[in-house]
Amino acid sequence: MTDTVAGAGAPATFGVRGYPAALEWIARRAEAVVIPLAALVVGMALFSLFILAVGKSPVQLYETMWRGGFGSWFSVQNSLSRAAPLLLAALCVALPARLGLVVIGGEGAIVLGGVAAAAAGVALSGAPSFIVILVMGVAGMAAGGIWIGAVGALRHYRAVNETISSLLMAYIAIALMNQLVEGPLRDPASLNKPSTQPLADIYRVGNMPGMEVHWGLAVGVIACVLSWVLIEKTRWGFAARIAGGNVRAAQVQGLAVGSLIVGFTGLAGAFAGLAGMLEVAAVQGSANASLAAGYGYTGILVAFLARHNPLAIIPVAFLLGGIDASGGLIQRRMDLPDATVLVLQGMLFIVILFSETFYGRFKAFNPDLWQRSS
Amino acid sequence: MDATGIGLWGVPLAILGGAIRVSTPFIFVSLGEAITERSGRINLGLEGTLVFGAMTAYAVAVMTGSPWLGLIAAAIAGLCFGLFHGWICKFRGVNDIAIGIALMLFGSGLAFFFGKPFIQPSAPDLPAIPLGAWSDIPQVQAALDVNVLFLIGAALAVFLWWAFRNTRAGLIVRVVGDSSDAARAMGLNPDTVRLIATGVGGALAGIGGAYLSLYYPGSWTEGISSGQGLMAVALVIFARWNPLGCFAAALLFGGAGALGPALQSVGVTQGYYLFYAAPYILTLIIMIATSSPSRSLAGAPGELSITK
């Protein structure tokens, strides 16, 4: 999918060789679109069988899902709101993945980013709103960046497996948040649900003009585009892709693999921390246990579905945001548990990973194997 | 637990009792994971298997009235998850760690889906053996009320330690784990061996889940497992793939998990959440201390992707 956008030189080639060249150009790039889409369809078909097996109608389910997630302007806005944190959470998985690292603890960075942002917002209360919002963003990014950057540093300097350490650190982060929110940062007025002091309205991040979707969506989309530029168009991204392919080769080439790993994981964590800041500043209004809403885990699925391509994350996050958003409606209309959406996500995840085995298997996508008549 | 009778002695005693109680699922999951990893694959999905096993055991125990049937059902469910992981990972390009993450989400989702109706009713517990009956002190009795599964787990650890060294099956698993090529030269099919090893690992994780819902904490809730399955994976690395080491490490982790409740029982409530995080912090510290960038881990199976 990357190359569909990246292949700027293609039209010139068409001029020389015409139609067959165009066909080849499309064929080479179609694989990265066709296989994930096919996997998505297969996953949805398998889920239909599951729904049939529990005695419900898959047609009604997908119809409800469409209505709840995509069918009206209202539901689209709802889906976009949920997509906003998913964009940033998915980047937390996709950026390290380009270096060959599987980081799955983005939830921890989201939670700590939210707490840091809330603490900064409360501490600065009285200052001009744009400064406070800016500092909150920086605080959230710093907290998340340090958290996931530490995972990268442990990976490089101590060879600690990043998958396990990041998830352990997510649990530690949630415990830390509970401790802070129940203790030093607690707003005495929050009785049933311990929270930090609520942010004043002027320090809240509002909605974008003309829609009921907060600015976090724009921030997420910009972050995805910038990440794509970083990976595909800069020398750091180039170095990261080499290191992701073969660490030894990268070291032989004299690339600073350690700095790359810490930098990329730090940036990844900063994005997740920003997601936490936006949850606090745009949605919750304070830091509390709702920060651990599972966006970090759905983000893993988004990143894998997008094959760690930051631009592909944008539509995939919208799709999964919509599936998430329709969960409530499915529960009410069809009398199914709210975990129905989780089952669908799990199935899609497995089928997508399984589809990896089909890359390079189809002649149709590989013009080098086409029989030439001339 | 009221510790006023024996004062602060209640803390180590409660930690000991807690270690025995909390460690049992760790023992089963880590032994299962040790078998899987010895064969050269890693199954991160055991966290999902644990949750699904807990739900299955509870549901079957509620419906049949027998905790043992629940236990068997959980083992079978875990076996299915393990076999699925083992089967799907044999395909080219399918990453065992990523599939594990997917199964973690899928197993939990499926457990929440089917487990909804079983949050209310109560199931019969697995029996415990009162090894502390000789004592008059209720705290000692409580600490030494040992569940049969703990004893089975201890016996299993010794058996596996022996079997890896002394049986044909143990040798086959180790060969496949150390070198697929050597295994093929011996006429073994690595995929089949790994399929079986992952299946058995899943079944043991399912039993660990049954312990969670049928003994301690003893009820089915959606938050029943908080990373035990995953910590067990780290624990296996720490234990250097040695079943006896797994058992010892599981006790250590159980003790760390019991620290918070034990301190709370004598009135220390400060930092409750941080004590709650003790097992995670301990796991992380152990991983940092035992990993090294310059040498590969002693005793690591050669085909294991996580140590490469």
From TrEMBL, chain A:
<feature type="transmembrane region" description="Helical">
    <location>
        <begin position="33"/>
        <end position="54"/>
    </location>
</feature>
<feature type="transmembrane region" description="Helical">
    <location>
        <begin position="101"/>
        <end position="124"/>
    </location>
</feature>
<keyword id="KW-1133">Transmembrane helix</keyword>
<keyword id="KW-0472">Membrane</keyword>
<dbReference type="GO" id="GO:0022857">
    <property type="term" value="F:transmembrane transporter activity"/>
</dbReference>
<protein>
    <submittedName>
        <fullName>ABC transporter permease</fullName>
    </submittedName>
</protein>
<dbReference type="InterPro" id="IPR001851">
    <property type="entry name" value="ABC_transp_permease"/>
</dbReference>
<feature type="transmembrane region" description="Helical">
    <location>
        <begin position="74"/>
        <end position="94"/>
    </location>
</feature>
<dbReference type="Pfam" id="PF02653">
    <property type="entry name" value="BPD_transp_2"/>
</dbReference>
<keyword id="KW-1003">Cell membrane</keyword>
<feature type="transmembrane region" description="Helical">
    <location>
        <begin position="163"/>
        <end position="181"/>
    </location>
</feature>
<feature type="transmembrane region" description="Helical">
    <location>
        <begin position="342"/>
        <end position="362"/>
    </location>
</feature>
<feature type="transmembrane region" description="Helical">
    <location>
        <begin position="287"/>
        <end position="306"/>
    </location>
</feature>
<dbReference type="GO" id="GO:0005886">
    <property type="term" value="C:plasma membrane"/>
</dbReference>
<keyword id="KW-0812">Transmembrane</keyword>
<feature type="transmembrane region" description="Helical">
    <location>
        <begin position="213"/>
        <end position="231"/>
    </location>
</feature>
<feature type="transmembrane region" description="Helical">
    <location>
        <begin position="311"/>
        <end position="330"/>
    </location>
</feature>
<feature type="transmembrane region" description="Helical">
    <location>
        <begin position="252"/>
        <end position="275"/>
    </location>
</feature>
<feature type="transmembrane region" description="Helical">
    <location>
        <begin position="130"/>
        <end position="151"/>
    </location>
</feature>
TrEMBL record, chain B:
<feature type="transmembrane region" description="Helical">
    <location>
        <begin position="246"/>
        <end position="266"/>
    </location>
</feature>
<keyword id="KW-1003">Cell membrane</keyword>
<feature type="transmembrane region" description="Helical">
    <location>
        <begin position="68"/>
        <end position="88"/>
    </location>
</feature>
<protein>
    <submittedName>
        <fullName>ABC transporter permease</fullName>
    </submittedName>
</protein>
<feature type="transmembrane region" description="Helical">
    <location>
        <begin position="272"/>
        <end position="290"/>
    </location>
</feature>
<feature type="transmembrane region" description="Helical">
    <location>
        <begin position="193"/>
        <end position="214"/>
    </location>
</feature>
<dbReference type="GO" id="GO:0022857">
    <property type="term" value="F:transmembrane transporter activity"/>
</dbReference>
<keyword id="KW-0812">Transmembrane</keyword>
<dbReference type="GO" id="GO:0005886">
    <property type="term" value="C:plasma membrane"/>
</dbReference>
<feature type="transmembrane region" description="Helical">
    <location>
        <begin position="97"/>
        <end position="119"/>
    </location>
</feature>
<keyword id="KW-0472">Membrane</keyword>
<feature type="transmembrane region" description="Helical">
    <location>
        <begin position="44"/>
        <end position="62"/>
    </location>
</feature>
<feature type="transmembrane region" description="Helical">
    <location>
        <begin position="6"/>
        <end position="32"/>
    </location>
</feature>
<dbReference type="Pfam" id="PF02653">
    <property type="entry name" value="BPD_transp_2"/>
</dbReference>
<keyword id="KW-1133">Transmembrane helix</keyword>
<dbReference type="InterPro" id="IPR001851">
    <property type="entry name" value="ABC_transp_permease"/>
</dbReference>
<feature type="transmembrane region" description="Helical">
    <location>
        <begin position="139"/>
        <end position="164"/>
    </location>
</feature>
